[in-house]
Amino acid sequence: MSRAKKAADRIRADLSMLEVLADYGYKVHPNGGDREQSFSCDLHGDGRDSRPSAIYYPRTNSFHCFACSRSRDTITLVMEKEGLTFWPAVRKLEKQYGLPPLPWEDDDTPDAPRPPTPGQQVTTVLDGQGTVSWEQASGRVEVFLRGLGEERTLDPSLVVKLWEAYDKVRYLQAEKGLAERDAAHLAMKVLTAAKEAAGGVAGGADG
User: Fold this and answer.
1) pLDDT tens digits for range 28-50
2) Is residue 121 over pLDDT 50?
3) 3-14 helix and 156-175 helix, angle to the nearest 10 degrees
């Protein structure tokens, strides 16, 4: 398992996003328990959100903003609020909330993509994954997931999971040096999963 995934998993498991949201001034109840909470998100448009458009999901310890058409965990929230990349955001959270840095271990290596199965190879050809760049793939995924958020055709918690899967690919590409070709392949797999979940609804994405 990569060091980045270990760090992200530890923060998601040990640190309540509600506490971080409250510390940033969002109107949530830090001791709200296992219930969903709606609140205003300032990460889109002019930063004003008169009608609360974000929902916190305790099961995934993350939130989805329907105006942004974007899901965020604690790390991505700090990255956007502070203008930080992945590791500085992790270190800020560790320091601020008293989480000791993870020790280095022998298996702290990037997650290597698994060889595609024959079925995945067919999907790769059909979706054109072999010729899609990382920029093109990431753009397609973001457009499609935003469309799902706007249409609200899927359970929001599933949309959150799809965004988390895409965000993990971004972490690996930006922070762990995953080759853009491999990152594009993984991003297109997220897109394929999203299309299958949507039952073939285009959601605004091409392809």
Assistant:
1) 998 877 889 999 999 888 888 88
2) no
3) 140
- Indicate the SS3 state at residue 147: helix
Q: Which two tokens stand for residue 113?
A: 């993509």
In order of 157, 159, 162, the CA distances from 154 in angstroms are 8, 7, 11
Whether residue 19 contacts residue 99, with contact meaning beta carbons closer than 8 Å, is answered with: no
What are the start-end ranges of the E strands in the chain? 37-39, 54-57, 62-65, 70-72
Burial of 31 (0-12, 13-18, 19+ CB in 10 A): exposed
**pLDDT of residue 146 exceeding 60:** yes
Domains of the chain: 1-99 (3.90.580.10), 116-198 (no CATH)
Q: Per residue in 147-156, pLDDT tens?
A: 776 666 667 7
Distance CA(152)–CA(131), nearest Å, equals 31
Does pTM surpass 0.90? Answer: no
